[in-house]
Amino acid sequence: MSTQDFSSLNLPQAAIDNLNSLGYKAMTAIQEQSIPLAFKGHDLIAKAKTGSGKTAAFSLPILNKLNIRFFGVQALILCPTRELSAQVAKEIRRLARYQQNIKVVTLCGGQPIGPQIGSLEHGAHIVVGTPGRIKDHLRKGTLVLEGVSTVVLDEADRMLDMGFYDDIETIIQQTPSKRQTLLFSATYPEKIQQLSSDFQSNPVEITVESVH
Ligand code: ADP
Ligand code: MG
């Protein structure tokens, strides 16, 4: 059971007010355990069930270190499906509502690539998407990841089940080695360990059994 409210984090008052207006009063257990560590710059392996509030657990740390004046991709969030990518992008936009001009671009397959290229040309701070389409953009040179300081692997277990390991590897290799890598998963199969040892440095493991 979590009782910590968001004001225990070192967030601007406008961010706290926005969270409260979204109905976020107390942190969920995974948020309480992961956000302070993520703020300190640690890599994390966070295991928690669906519905436990993982999106805000990685999005608040991303928003907290974003440089809005730099119109380059600073955070990359990989998700297994188009639907999950859309949900994550929507949640980030809600969490970022107190700040002006944060650009979140969603890059997923099954959608025309032209408008995605157009959005990227206008500048994006945060990219959310599926590994296949993100790899396509890297191949075309329409997405550049050299300014990325945070990579999130959301629903990492599902991405591995879907055979995305090699794509994830190709993508992460194009990000700076000095980055923060946050891995979120509902389960913890052996392949997750492999993913972590390949792409994280000294990750802190967090496991939350219940949802709240
Ligand atoms: P997960 O990714 O772990 O499945 P989500 O990030 O999608 O979970 O969050 C599940 C739901 O809980 C969403 O509707 C989200 O808006 C809500 N939520 C997240 N954190 C909080 C919080 N601290 N207080 C209230 N609601 C929250
Ligand atoms: Mg989620």
From TrEMBL:
Instruction: Give the motif span (Q motif).
Output: 4-32
Molecular function via GO: ATP binding; hydrolase activity; nucleic acid binding; RNA helicase activity
Q: Where is the Helicase ATP-binding domain?
A: 35-206
Specify the DEAD-box RNA helicase Q domain's residue ranges.
Answer: 4-32
Keywords, ordered alphabetically: ATP-binding, Cytoplasm, Helicase, Hydrolase, Nucleotide-binding
Instruction: Write out the similarity annotation.
Output: Belongs to the DEAD box helicase family.
In Swiss-Prot or TrEMBL terms, this protein is called DEAD-box ATP-dependent RNA helicase RhpA
Q: Which organism is it from?
A: Alkalimarinus sediminis
High-level lineage? Bacteria, Pseudomonadati, Pseudomonadota, Gammaproteobacteria, Alteromonadales
Could you say which residues of the full protein are shown? Answer: 1 to 212 of 460
